Amino acid sequence: MERNQTPLRQKSSSFSSSTREEKLRETDRNLSLGSIRLESSERKENDFDRILEKMDEENAAEKPEDEDATAAAAANAKETVTDFATLSEEIDQFLGIFFSLKAVPNPENCTPPEIPESVVENFVTAVEKEIVKYESGEEKWSPDHDELSLLAAIDRISKLTSAVTTFSSEPMYGHAMSRAGGVLHHAMSFLEDEFHALLLEDSRAKPAADLGCASSKIKRPPSFGRREDADRCVIPSAESNSTESAPAYPPETVERLRAIAAAMIAAEYGTECCQVFTVARRNAFEAGLSSIGYEKSSIDDVLKMAWEALEGEIAMWIKTFRQSVGASLSYEHDLCHQVFAGHCDIASAIFHNFARGVVIHLLNFVEAVAMTKRSAEKLFKVLDMYEALRDSLPMIEALFPASEDDSGGGEESSTLSELRSEINSVRGRLGEGAVAIFCELESSIKSDMGKTPVPGGAVHPLTRYVMNYLKYACEYKNTLEQVFKLHHKPAASYDDDDDGDNNNYSSSSNNNNNNNRRRRGPAANSENPFAGQLIEVMDLLHANLDAKSKLYKDLALSNIFLMNNGRYVVQKIKGSAEINALLGDSWGRKRSSDLRQYHKNYQRETWSRVLACFKDDGLTVKGTVQKPVLKERLKSFNAMFEEIHKTQSAWVVSDEQLQSELRVSVSAVVVPAYRSFLGRFSQYLNPGRQTEKYVKFGPDDLENYIDELFDGNPTSMARRR
Questions:
Q1: 41-78 burial: b if 16+ Cβ within 10 Å, else e
Q2: Into which CATH architecture does domain 615-720 fall?
Q3: Full-prediction pTM beyond 0.85?
């Protein structure tokens, strides 16, 4: 049979027919992670058609008509295997002669051995028939259906083509070179198809990007003022996640992939094999990202997103990044070295390119987030991303041991150096942004200069905002301390109080007016700049609240306001071990002392005039009680107490303990003094209407009325009576 002449070693980056190219296109090998194009070349279709025709003729001639014919066919198949084994032995003998000649110093000067053309022809024809059988779908190629040891046979053809190339100028080798080269090309096309089909079998298992995702655990709020936490995907340990990290491919599939890769590399078709592997695994990885809900966003998309939408995207990115670094890259590393076992340089190169593409792809989102407008609510998500990047470095470093670097010499992988540099660069921008956002809390406090006092002296919204913000922020205490140490700029030691711009860190050497400039906390605390910044914020809040207390005309209410807000601050600090540790015991003692002083000021402003009614001075003249003075004292007390009750029952003390302390302290001072006063002087009033007119409250009634103060619900004594 006439055959098209195919030059030996004529290779292309792909060797598939148009049908196979359509199949590959269906899998979409062009990726956002870095597309790789597989160039194609056409198979010699005339050869293929002739082979099919020959098989049809042989099948028609050999078709058994009865059971005897079937038995004969089975015996013939067994004989064919035996003949193929004999052919293999002859090919091995022939190759042994060739390779012994290649071992001599000048093989081209040696007399080439005579080539057993019939053996070569029969051998490559048998291999080609076997390949066509599997390609036609008559049988599926597997270890159970490989009577001729196809990979070993293909390896012989590869060695045969390599051997005769040594004597390529000999005319007698022309047909053998063409025939063996054509079948080898066909075999490589078949193996590439099989390799790609095996790689697609991970659809029956988890995509690599979906490996290792443990259930999220609530640790911190995803943003200020929210309670859910959907972005905490804990990196699984080997012990706790043994079932999650099961390989995507069964061991037998990995072994077949390894065998095919070894055959293609031995035949010098390693480039094509690596391209197919890389594209298939990148497609699988991207499919895994989509399966967990992660979609690529451009910088423009991120910059245009509303915060609510971007917050969700950040949460998904954190989950995806932790999974990718903590599980997926490790799996891909192991898979590369399993499939390309014995070819460490190839495995490392494939994995390095894969890891670089994945990490750079994911870092692009962080770059975009770092470019968005800064705002207070973004701090916690920025810190979450910062932590994810920081925690990823040890795991990434573990994936790039120096021995795997193709540069050799135990030097650090250039890929690792590049990724570390990229991660640290992006992390630095996040750190600088976090510092700026937290420092802008000062600006928020300074700009809150409202002139309307809070009704009832209640806790001011600014106090709640700042303290809750600090409470959540200090859950990131260790990270914020690290961020301030690494990314806080020493030049930002001062800021102008009168310009309202906390981003202006310039210093004027000509301005010596210290009253217009404030020493910033971080500069004052070089060992822990975050603690210094926190103290600065607390001092600013204290000063702001002190100014707001002066908006109340009633000094007693002013002190209630300071007590309410001071108590709220102290309770928040006591409830946060992190803030307490940062501010220190002396700061806490000072605020507790302030609270006691506010309490004393309130008592003095409200009840000192009431207690003055119970003094003996002026009531007795030469041992005689002056009834008009007694009556006036009682009238004054009644009026003052009614007014205090009417006014201060509308005041608000939301902290139950503080409310109780205030009522108890008032009762402890007023009720005994009133009881004693009545005990000494009530008998000087005429019983009946006169007593009812001037003694409106019994001591127990007085105590009950005091227990109605600070409820924020004004009540009328007249209505109650």
A1: eebbeebeeebeeebeeeeeeeeeeeeeeeeeeeeeee
A2: Up-down Bundle (1.20)
A3: no
